[in-house]
Amino acid sequence: xxxIPEKIHELTVGQxxxxxxxxxxxxxxxxxxxxxxxxxxxxxxxxxxxxxxRRVAFVRAAQRVGIPLATIxxxxxxLPEERTPTREDWARLSQxxxxxxxxxxxxxNRLRDHLTDCIGCGCLSxxxxxxxxxxxAFGQRQGTGSRLLIERNPD
Length: 155
Fold this sequence. Notes:
The protein is mainly alpha-helical and 155 residues long. It has helices at residues 13-20, 24-32, 52-64, 69-77, 87-95, 98-121, 137-142, 147-152, and strands at residues 10-11, 39-40, 46-49. The protein starts with 9 loop residues before the first strand and ends with a helix.
């Protein structure tokens, strides 16, 4: 990984890509979405402040856990400009997402736990499937699967 001397306070897009592990196209995309910012040189080249490295790392970590870009942008807007955010800054921002992530984990656990049952019953029904219709009162009384179709069409 290329080292950037401490005396250099701005990075080219290539340096930022090399140091962050993000593709140049991803950095341009992040900039169009307002997640990072740059200034333009007289030759119209982008220059990023060093704090963009941490911002890119934050964006990529948040994306990995499924945080929408709009939510990430709102969080980054709370950070100070031209200063590398502190550990406390990041902790405050990530804490706000904790309950959302906990709910997603709960949903994924429920999906995992019922996946075998759903495939095992063979119903493939959106109306009675435990996964897509978890509060199916009729299914609880009459049974799951294709029984309802069989009872309606006794051919």
